[in-house]
Amino acid sequence: MTSALRVILQIINYTIFMFLVGYFSIYPQFKHLEDDQAMITLAISHAGERREECRKIPPEELAKLPPNMRTPMDCPRERSPIVVELTLDGKVVISDNVEPPGLYADQGIDIFQSIKIPAGKHLLSLKMNDSVRVEGPTFTHKQDINLEPAQLLVIQFDSENGKFTLN
Amino acid sequence: MKTFNPIKRGYLALEEWLNISFGGELNPLYHLGTLTFFFFWIVLISGIYLFIFFDTSLSGAYNSVEYLTNEQWYLGGVMRSLHRYASDAAILTILLHMFREFALDRYRGFRWFSWLTGVPTLWFVVTLGITGYWLVWDELGLYVAVLSAQLMDALPIVSGSMARNFLEGQLTDRFFTLMGFLHLLGQPVLLIFALWIHVKRLSHVEISAPRGLALGSFIALMALSLYMPAESHAPADLGKVPATLNIDWFYLNIYPLLDHWSAGNVWILSIGVTMFLMIMPWLPPKKTGHAAVVHLDECNGCGQCADDCPFDAITMRQRTDEARWEYEVVVDDKLCAACGICVGSCHSSNIFRYKNKTLDTGIDMPQFPVDEVRQKTAEVISGIEGDTKILILGCDHAYDVKQINEPGIGIMTLFCSGMTPPSLVEYALKNGVDGVLLTGCRNGDCFYRYGNIWMDKRLDGDRKPVLRERADKSRIEVFRAAETDGKKLTQKIDEFKQHLILLNKEDAATTADNGTDGGAS
Ligand code: HEM
Questions:
Q1: C-alpha distance from residue A39 to each of A167, B6, B138, B289, B368 (Å)
Q2: Domain range annotation of chain A
Q3: Which residues of A touch B242 (CB under 8 A)?
Q4: How far is CA A138 from CA A81, A93, A131, in A?
Q5: Per residue in B454-473, is it b (16+ CB within 10 Å) or e — as a string?
Q6: Which residues on B lie below 8 Å from A22 (Cβ)?
Q7: What's the gap in Å between B93 CA and the centre of ligand 1?
Q8: Nearest-CA residue of chain A relative to B233?
Q9: Three-state DSSP class for B435?
């Protein structure tokens, strides 16, 4: 093997190496969204209502309790699951039913879901139930939306004011 | 009978091609670990430079990288590209490193530790790359951030939603600073620690890549950096979805899966693959032979075997018997690979000792003691027929020399080339063979790491125990051959035979001349 030939072979090998490194460092391109798609993210952070209503403890029962446990209200900690449904032009696109986490099922839930939708105009409707004591949705929202391609619409729930926010 | 293994054949073909291109010394496949270290050096140095100009705040990060890329393209831009491409190259060499160890069956048995500890390093490297892409805070950074957060949210360990942090109005510098800390300090430190453990059971570990390869690959990365400088996407915009992305597939390959699978399933896949890799050494397990045994009566504690052991299985300690030597050696059975290299290193393995009784040596392999090696060699030699007799000394992990069935040739194999006491070569020459051909794993590619390297040094007089000067070097040939090198080896044997025939003729002529001279005087 002459050294000139060896140098040529090495250059070929280094070129293959450079090509592999350079190519896979950016190609093949990945299309996270098609050109005519937009995205909706449903990001809800909310604590459901208590499963059972708080109960006022009658004085005679209260007297039986040790002094340090004498609170006038008995509030079972367990909370309701959150059931949420997002409908777009009459078609359900997200539907979730989340049990409250925590040892006593007493904590708030977090929903974070994204869906790709065609950009353009849509009728969006939202339903949420956060109480097992109520049949049907406890909150609803309907709105016409118009999304640009690649636009991200984030839907959140404002627990304080009891309404959905879209931005 | 060795079975046909297409993966090994494939690997050997690649190795052969690179041997032709680079020669044995500089074959990149023999230096994958050190090359990876070399790429880490480039990453470190370029990273320090980038850090000087990098703004670790959400609002400033993107522009600081843009400044480096565009305004300071001649240095900052090159550094950024080197930082990216050297990281990518490291993944390439790590994957090849894994493929090599797997293809050559160097991941089971006593090697389980190196394999097992290699797997987490892969995680550390990949996650280091992920936080790196995060820090650019362009569309790709945002994509990586949001999807990583969704992955984290799928784990039961995180309470609350991490992904919520990336909604308009929620984002604070808190997270970004954490990423900065992880990428710049936390993860590199973890990686160094993991690598230290990874090579802990090996000795004579090379960290620096050979100069030729380091230079070549640096020039290649530099050329790539100038030809195709690393660039950012558009700046991160929380109100927009990153649509078309130039994904670095070396590091970010898992994310596109999230378009089709739930985060939970992506975890199951990644953890499943990791677990599978981790248990591979036991699928099925490979038994390691009996560990080397020390015979203190014959050991003077010189420490040559401890120095030669490629797996750090032999250590020195104060003498425990009454002998006048200061030290003795101890073998850690758990670390011993049963390669027998220590037998070749022990000066007490001198084949000419104890001619008429059992040859005991300082450290020996109970399953094939050096005394048996001597006896077997004597038998093989006495069985060789023909005018030109050759003894081939092979090893159990290279070309299976037992397949050679030619008159005039005797075959002897040991666990490793390095198990051969150099005196065995001299012994063969003295006891009737015309030449000795040593073969074994390809140079730079010894199954037991250092066997053929130590053996070559012993023959050259560079490492103890050395082949004595009086051994006729013109009758010794070294030719290493892997499983697929049968043809080349046969050709070499033919050439060696011709060479020996010529030597024999010359010797005969000299003897005859001396005889005539002697008669005349
Ligand atoms: C961060 C990347 C890694 C680096 C820098 C690295 C480096 C090294 C080095 C320097 C050696 C010693 C080689 C020698 O001197 O013979 C080695 C051995 C080894 N590595 Fe890695 N390694 C990496 C990742 C891995 C991975 C991911 C695996 C497999 C899962 C792996 C499996 C092995 C095995 C089995 C050995 C033992 C080789 C022997 O005993 O001869 N390594 N590595």
A1: 12, 47, 18, 61, 70
A2: 1-30, 32-52+79-166
A3: 32-33
A4: 12, 19, 7
A5: bbbbbbeeebbbbbeeebee
A6: 85, 224, 227-228
A7: 10
A8: A26
A9: strand
CB distance A43–B228 less than 8 Å?
no
B84 touches chain A (CB under 8 A): yes
Using a CB-CB cut-off of 8 Å, the residues of chain B touching A38 are 241
B167, A43: Cβ pair inside 8 Å? yes
Q: Is B256 on the interface with A (CB under 8 A)?
A: yes
* CA dihedral for B14, B16, B17, B18, sign (positive or negative): positive
Confidence of residue B517 (pLDDT cuts 50, 70, 90): low
Nearest CA in chain B to A151: B240
Report d(CA B25, CA B27) in Å as an integer.
Answer: 6
Sketch the domain layout of chain B as residue ranges: 30-282, 293-510
Per-residue confidence (pLDDT) for residue A69, from 0 to 100:
82
Assigned superfamily of B30-282? Cytochrome Bc1 Complex; Chain C (1.20.810.10)
Section B245-252 average pLDDT = 97
End-to-end CA distance of chain A: give it in Å, rounded: 69
Average pLDDT over residues B136-140: 95
CB-nearest partner of B161 from A24, A32, A110: A110
Residue B521: band (very low, low, confident or very high) from pLDDT cuts 50, 70, 90: very low
Residue A14 and residue B256: Cβ atoms within 8 Å?
no
The one-character DSSP state at B165 is: G
Note whether A118 and A38 are within 8 A (CB).
Answer: yes
Question: What is the ipTM metric for this complex?
Answer: 0.88
Mean pLDDT on A138-163: 92
- Is B138 within 8 Å of chain A by CB? no
- pTM, to two decimals: 0.90
Question: Quick check: B370 and B361 in contact, CB under 8 A?
Answer: yes
> Residue A70 — pLDDT band, cuts 50, 70, 90?
confident
Residue B119 Cβ inside 6 Å of ligand 1? The answer reads: yes
- CA of A18 relative to ligand 1 center, distance in Å: 23
Per-residue pLDDT of B419-478, as tens digits, reads: 999 999 999 999 999 999 999 999 888 999 999 999 999 999 999 999 999 999 999 999
CATH class in words for A32-52+79-166: mainly beta
Place of tokens 């060789």: B384
Cβ <8 Å between B224 and A22: yes
Residue B329, phi then psi, degrees to nearest 5? -110, 150
Cβ-nearest to B248 among A25, A154, A167:
A25
